[in-house]
Specification:
Blueprint: H1 3-8, H2 11-15, H3 23-37, H4 46-62, H5 65-77, H6 96-103, E1 110-112, E2 115-119, H7 122-129, E3 158-164, H8 166-171, E4 173-178, E5 184-189, E6 197-201, E7 217-223, E8 229-232, E9 235-243, H9 244-249, E10 251-257, E11 260-267, E12 276-279, E13 285-286, E14 289-290, E15 293-300, H10 307-319, H11 327-334
Parallel strand pairs: 3-7, 9-15
Antiparallel strand pairs: 1-2, 2-3, 4-5, 6-7, 8-9, 10-11, 12-15, 13-14
Helix pairs in contact: 3-4
């Protein structure tokens, strides 16, 4: 930037701060304006884009102590002088195009079987810049690939997803993913991973263009539904049909387990639908604990009966005590 630009532009006014603003106040003001005028928040708005560039230009000067001191000195001299001022950042940081061009340049989305791969969005980038991402607050390492003054650029983070089967999610396994640039990455899926859970692969994102640390891959794990089992925390649930006779008289039945041999369970006489039988230790096994298998009994009612079966069932009904199982329900409803 030529020194005449420093004479002509009041960077303090651009950022809406006083000349004695503290670094903390400056960062807060810049953060607010950057969010308001960022192009991703104002698509198709050239005025907002120009304002964002102006804000970034102002902060690149007065946000750096050495540049701010020089800027204040140049402004104090008045507009009569003519000389060439150094480029903002000195050799320590690039300009707007260097920093934000690489940061918000986006990228083509690529789909691969079971694996999607795309650049992080605006929230990911500003989240890292302003304290919600890796590197803490200020201009430390961010998911947007912006190291800030005095250091090389960090590689950009990559947002990705993969889909695994229910058994893999329950027992854990190692899978291999291929990145957009052709690298094969081995990923450990921990036992008990939940649907939608995120796994961070540190240093596996895009490489830094100037020798800095690589970004990360933030991998979202999607879990396919199982036709029989469901997750309930560390427990596995399964619905087990039993006949009316088994429920009424009691029986020993086989219950499936996930990826292992069935286990035998004793159904007590008079077991109703909805009763849950627990098989200890047959749920999800993790370092934090082991779940159980929860077998919920469902009494199966036959949809077709032979004439002989109907007659015997009618005789059975006649032999039962004459009581209405809904009497208690109706009485409570009247209260």
């Amino acid at each position: 930037m030529a020194s005449q630009d420093w004479f002509d532009k009041d960077f303090y006014k651009v950022l809406g701060v006083s000349k004695d603003v503290t670094p903390a106040e400056l960062k807060k003001a810049y953060r607010k304006l950057a969010r308001k005028f960022h192009p991703d928040s104002n698509p198709g708005n050239p005025a907002a884009e120009a304002k964002f560039k102006e804000i970034s230009e102002a902060h690149s000067v007065i946000g750096d102590p050495a540049q701010r001191k020089e800027y204040d000195a140049v402004r104090a001299m008045g507009g009569g002088a003519r000389f060439t001022a150094p480029r903002p950042g000195g050799g320590q940081a690039g300009g707007f195009d260097d920093v934000f061009g690489g940061m918000f340049g986006g990228g083509a989305r690529q789909q691969q079987p079971g694996y999607s791969y795309e650049q992080g969005g605006f929230d990911d980038l500003l989240g890292g810049m302003f304290g919600r991402g890796q590197g803490g607050g200020g201009f430390g390492t961010s998911s947007g690939g912006f190291r800030g003054y005095g250091g090389p650029t960090r590689g950009r983070d990559v947002i990705a997803s993969t889909t695994v089967d229910f058994i893999t999610a329950t027992h854990g396994d190692q899978i291999t993913l291929q990145t957009q640039d052709g690298r094969a990455i081995k990923v450990k899926i921990p036992a008990g991973v939940a649907d939608g859970q995120k796994i961070k692969l540190r240093g596996q994102g895009q490489h830094s263009p100037d020798g800095g640390e690589s970004g990360d891959i933030v991998l979202t794990v999607n879990v396919r539904k199982h036709p029989v089992f469901e997750r309930d925390g560390l427990n596995l649930r399964v619905s087990v049909p039993v006949t009316f006779v088994e429920a009424a008289l009691g029986a020993t039945i086989e219950v499936p387990t996930l990826g292992e041999a069935p286990v035998k369970l004793r159904i007590a006489p008079g077991t109703p639908s909805g009763r849950v039988l627990r098989v200890k230790g047959r749920g999800v096994v993790t370092p934090k604990g082991t779940g159980d298998l929860l077998a919920e009994v469902q009494v199966a009612v036959p949809s077709h009966l032979s004439k002989d079966a109907e007659e015997k069932l009618a005789a059975f009904a006649e032999a039962l005590p004459k009581e209405n199982p809904r009497d208690e329900l109706l009485a409570k409803a009247r209260d």
